[in-house]
Design brief:
CATH topology of one domain: Ku70, Chain: A, Domain 2
Oligomer: single chain
Number of helices: 6
Number of strands: 13
Amino acid sequence: MASLWSGYLTFGLISMPVRLFAGARSENVSFHMLHRDDLVRVKQQLTCPAENKVIDRSEVVKGYEFRKGEYVVIEPEEIKKIEPKTAKAMEILEFVPAKDIDPVYFESSYFLIPEEAGRKPYALLEKALEETGFYGIAKLTMHNREYTVILRPSDGGIMLHTMYYADEVREVEGFGDLKVQVKPAELKVATQLVNALSGEWKPEQYSDTFQENLKKMIAAKLEGEEVTAVEKPKKPAPVVDLMEALKASLAQSGKAGKKPVASEKKTAASSEKHRKKPPRKAA
């Protein structure tokens, strides 16, 4: 697997050579665009409407529209000239408590791997992050953009996550402003239901049902078999009595009393934490 970025990670006066590798990617069944009459793949071509002709990709340049219909051309070497130092050097700016970072800011995930010469300081940093419960905040330039990134310990290594900037995180009017009263008894049963349905986090047990159904459909068509329709869910009935619905759900789970109910103090603290999130940009 080819690295996406290589350079140096600096930690105080310590510097270590590192490489960045993609941590996750979506897996989807892909389709080609075909001409229905002869099932031949169609081609997308670049055309110049002014000259009404097809042009080669080598004839294309990047341009910024500074006025309607007017552009300034930007060459690749010009972009190289203005790359900040973070294009090759990633400096840790500060450390913050992991619990203070709202997951909404996380964008993409990467594996940060040390070169041979950087293994010892890398291991030291990983252990320090693990011991303190802090995440490192750094800056990194790649793909024509400078990112704020989070460095966090994970299974003996360090994961890097690019982050959205504060002005990129949206706000939806009315979110979190429910103006309803929750009765203590309702909260108690709801908490019991959460505990009853709790389990160990095992990501491998989840899968994309839609993608699996697509693969089955393709296999069926290749075999000349009929495609079986998936049963659609019925429209749920409106809840008339919330408490009765909670009790019935708890009984249906068959796990009542599995774990102790979370204390009111913990619940209140959790609510307070969520109320103190930073303001977000309106959508």
